[in-house]
Design goal:
This protein has 249 residues and is α/β, with parallel strands linked by helices. The protein is built from 10 helices and 6 strands; from the N terminus they run H-E-H-E-H-E-H-H-E-H-E-E-H-H-H-H.
C-alpha cells in the first residue's frame, strides 16, 4: 500500500465519522508496532492538507520490558515533524512479578490505556488516536459474540467522560494486510513486542478463525465488517453520507 492510498482510507474514516475538528490537538498512541507507526504516517500526512487544521504529537507508554528501544521511533517522529513523548511505567513488573498474572491481557490493556490517556491529558491534548484497523474491528466483534454473547465492536469515535478525552480510530477502513505492505514499503522502525504472552491470546484465536472463514468463504471478512458498519451498534456515531461529508467541508 502506498502513502496516497493510506491517506485516502484515513480521510474517509475521519470525514464519515467526523473525527477531527478545527483546532484539535491529537495524540497518537505509539506502541512501536506496525499499526501505530502506520497511523503516525497517516495523520502526519493528513495534517498537511486537511481543511480543518489540527496539531499532532506521539506518545509511547513504556511498559518496562527490557530491550524495548525507542530511538528509531524518535528519529521517525523528528523526520515527520511530530513531537514525541515516552512515558515510563512499571506495568510489566506489576503484571508478571508482583501479581504473577497468567492471563494479563485485559488488565495490561486497561493499565496501558489509563497511562496513555493520563499522559495525553497532562500534555494538553483533547483527542487520542488508536491504531485499530479493519481486522481489529472484526476480531473484536467475533470475540464479543463468542465470549460475551452480544454483537458489538469498539466505536470509530467515543468520548471518555472521566478523562475529558475523545478517542478516534482513523485506520478503521485499512486492512491489516495493507498495513504489513506499508510497513515493508516504507521500512517502518518496528519495535518488536517484548510481552511473554504475545501471540497466545484470545485475539490471536479470533484472527486465525477469521482467516479460516475467509479461506472457506472468500469475502467473509468484508461482509462481517459491513454488518458492523450497518449494525447500529450502541455508542457508535452516525456515519455521514458522501453528500453530507461534502456539505460539512
Amino acid at each position: 500500500m502506498k502513502l496516497q492510498q493510506l491517506l485516502s482510507f484515513t480521510r474517509k474514516a475521519v470525514d464519515e465519522y467526523q473525527m477531527i475538528e478545527t483546532g484539535d490537538k491529537i495524540a497518537v498512541g505509539i506502541s512501536g508496532g506496525k499499526d501505530s507507526l502506520t497511523l503516525l504516517y497517516a495523520l502526519s500526512g493528513l495534517r498537511r492538507f486537511y481543511p480543518k487544521p489540527f496539531e499532532l504529537t506521539a506518545v509511547t507508554v513504556d511498559l518496562g520490558y527490557e530491550k524495548f528501544h525507542t530511538e528509531k521511533i524518535d528519529a521517525l517522529c523528528r523526520e515527520l515533524g511530530v513531537p514525541y513523548h515516552v512515558i515510563k511505567t512499571d506495568i510489566a513488573h506489576i503484571l508478571f512479578e508482583e501479581r504473577k498474572e497468567s492471563n494479563p491481557c485485559s488488565l495490561c490493556a486497561k493499565m496501558r490505556k489509563g497511562a496513555l490517556n493520563e499522559a495525553v491529558k497532562k500534555l494538553g491534548y483533547n483527542k487520542v488516536a488508536y491504531a485499530h484497523h479493519k481486522d481489529d474491528i472484526v476480531e473484536t466483534m467475533i470475540l464479543s459474540l463468542i465470549f460475551e454473547g452480544r454483537f458489538h465492536s469498539f466505536s470509530p469515535k467515543s468520548y471518555l467522560d472521566r478523562m475529558g478525552l475523545t478517542v478516534i480510530r482513523p485506520m478503521m477502513f485499512v486492512n491489516e494486510a495493507d498495513v504489513i505492505g506499508f510497513q515493508r514499503k516504507y521500512d517502518l522502525p518496528v519495535e518488536k513486542s517484548r510481552c511473554p504472552v504475545d501471540g497466545l491470546t484470545k485475539r490471536q484465536y479470533a484472527k486465525e478463525l477469521i482467516h479460516q472463514l475467509e479461506l472457506d468463504h472468500p469475502g467473509a471478512k468484508q461482509r462481517m465488517f459491513t454488518a458492523i458498519l450497518n449494525g447500529r451498534i450502541d455508542g457508535w456515531p452516525v456515519r455521514l453520507t458522501r453528500e453530507e461529508v461534502k456539505s460539512s467541508s
